[in-house]
Hints:
Layout: H1 3-9, H2 11-53, H3 56-61, H4 74-125, H5 140-194, H6 202-233, E1 242-245, H7 246-256, H8 258-263, E2 267-272, E3 277-280, H9 282-299, E4 304-311, E5 315-322, H10 354-364, E6 367-374, E7 378-386
Parallel strand pairs: 2-4
Antiparallel strand pairs: 1-3, 4-5, 5-7, 6-7
Helix pairs in contact: 1-2, 2-4, 4-5, 5-6, 6-10, 7-9, 9-10
Amino acid sequence: MDRIDKFVNNHSPKRIVIAFLVIMVFSVVLSFVLSGKIADFVAHEQLMSYLSEIENEKANQYGFSSDMSLRLIPIWIKVRNISFFMILSAMVLCSFLWTFFSIHEVFSIYDKLELLSSECIKSADKLDNMVNLHGEATGCVRRISESARLLASRMTYLDNCIEYERNYISLFFGDFSHQIKTALAVVRLNMDMLAETEKLPPEYCEQLSDEIQLNLDSMENLVVQAIKIARLESQAIEYDMQELDLSDTCRTALKRIASVLRDKQIRTEVNFQQGIKLKHDKGWLCEAIENVLKNSADHSDCTAISVETEENPIMIKLSVTDNGKGIPQKEIPHLFEKFAKKSRDITMKSAGMGMSIAQKIVRSHGGEIIVYSTIGKGTRFEFVFVKI
């Protein structure tokens, strides 16, 4: 935008010019009045000086008196003209300098705003473009540029979040569909084989039926877990938070998974500190504890799991410890990702989302799950709830 365009398309320069013209009119009037006053003063002083030097009779003879009109004195017009042009010239010069400086400063602000506008447009087209700071440290242009930079950084952050969610959804549904397709392939194959029941022995037909049922249960479990993940991530769950005994919640979780532990011949040990009260939703926290217990039972090759609770002035802690093979340190950060287990570890009874669900439930209760593991010695999961 050139200077003519800035002048035509903005009101401020026009207002400055209008103010300059108004000041010019005011300057003419003021110069006229002041020059008359100055001329009157000079003529009066000259008249008084002249009258004091000559006698009254001579003054009257020449037509001079103290009450005569000052404009009749020849010097009055000369003083008036000189004073008028000097005052007017001074006022015009000051007004012109003020107008020039004001327009220059306004155009300077417009230049910075145009540059800021260009940077904002570039940032909108490509979010990694940085918006620079313009203007004085405490000026309005600086504050506007700071706001634009903040807005651009938040847009970049939101774009990164959207990109992360897009990648997450893509990976999630890729893994989800892979597991569904695997189970469906087994069901379809077994159904095709059962279609020829007259050629198959009864015990083999029964085995195929069991495999179909197992895969159907797996798909059902996978869908249920996916729905839970979606509800947890969208914060669509209303928790029934109550001040309940934590040891009672742990016992309920152990009862719900007792059959799995029994089938795998895993013994359980409990050490509950009595009287620990924690504000929580019993059903959901039970699910989190159960998922961690199931993870240890399915993937650690352990023979014993211990569950402990303890309370101190700072926190409430629930620990689940197994004596299994342990988890490599590099895999611990990925433990709570969905479908984080290696394909060889995924069984038809495991959806691969239990640990992610457990972490989201615990975080919704204001806690965190911390993992300690040693290869060959076992793993310890600590549910930590800091007291506020």
